[in-house]
Amino acid sequence: MASDGGYNSVDLTWSSCSRQELLTFFSDGEAECVKDLPALGGSLQDWKPGLYYGVDDQCRIAFGSTARACSFTNPDLPACRVLSCHINPDDNSSCKRLLVPLLDGTECAPNQWCLKGRCVSLDELSSSVVVHGSWSNWSEFSPCSRTCGGGVTHRTRKCNNPRPAFGGNDCEGSDIEAGLCHQQACELTQLDFMAEQCSQTDHHPLYLLPNTATFYTWIPAIGFAQGDEQCRYMCQSKGENFIVSRGSQFVDGTRCETDSPPHFGSTLLNALFVSDQLFGCDGVLHSGKVRDVCGVCGGDASSCSLTADSYTSGQAREYTPFLSLPVNATQVYIVNRAPLFTHMAVMVGDRYIVSGTEYHLHLTPDLLPEMEELLLPGPLSEEIHVQVRREKHSF
């Protein structure tokens, strides 16, 4: 059973010095000021400190920076009469009690607040005491979440200056403001950042059976979620059919992109995570903008035209150019339906390249090549030539 620390968990006795000073104050006739009733002028915010300092704040003031409000209650103790706090950040089983009432304006239950040691509801208050929420100052911007490849920096504010109370309105606007940073390309890693994070958990076992550790190779679980749900740290076991959470969320600044070739006329999502929220492709939080098939952020696909064709020729055992792609070409999708006898290659100038392309090879149940797919999202910064090599004279 959890311990509550008891009523005597804090020494509230007077020191001899303080006792003498108080007695002198009264005996010298200087205590007439305590007979005056306080003037409650101004707004409610001026005399309800609990609207500015919640229970966690009051615990930190009383017991130190690591203290926080107790996660359980004692039915024998009125909610607003005793300050109950967890002192040790690693211990949720015990509470320390301070025999002081919670500050007036402290929320003590849903739509209830402490007033003079009582937990009162909105029905017990007049409409004149309504308090509308107001924002705190912005925090400092956080460090950039990545050193390269496009990260995120953000700052936050809280609706606690004061907190809304007694039927008042919540703060309007967003509690987070973010921007992009360190957008230069990474030089050392060849892995997509999302894939990199999933692969970093390969050495963390799953215990599918009691006391039996099982290890898997983890890859991003692409295409199983939309919107903010893409921020969840979900990875798929390579070669298996199950998806598992490998943490709370992907690192702020993780780029989410579809991993499958798009259908012509579809859009390619290009966004960044920040604290379970998404940037649009324009770098603005919550803008909802995505790139169209032409690669234009927020475009309507009217700035480019669709070109489609097929190729069935080529020389045996030689690389034959069959497609030249101009600068600014986007969403190039090539399918080879006879990969048992042919395969594709991509050239820039006089060199073959792999980076900047997405390549997929689909196998039959007998592990034979069934279909080859090549995707160049673009827009291309230089002219590219695609070649095909035939191993035999006929497909």
Automatic annotation (TrEMBL):
GO biological process, one term: proteolysis
Protein keywords: Calcium, Disulfide bond, Glycoprotein, Hydrolase, Metal-binding, Repeat, Secreted, Zinc
Domain (ADAMTS cysteine-rich): residue spans on this chain: 49-120
Binding residues annotated for Ca(2+) 1, in chain numbering: 33, 36
List of residues binding Ca(2+) 2: 36
Annotated GO CC locations: extracellular matrix; extracellular region
Protein known as: Uncharacterized protein
Organism of derivation: Cyclopterus lumpus (Lumpsucker)
Source organism phylogeny: Eukaryota, Metazoa, Chordata, Craniata, Vertebrata
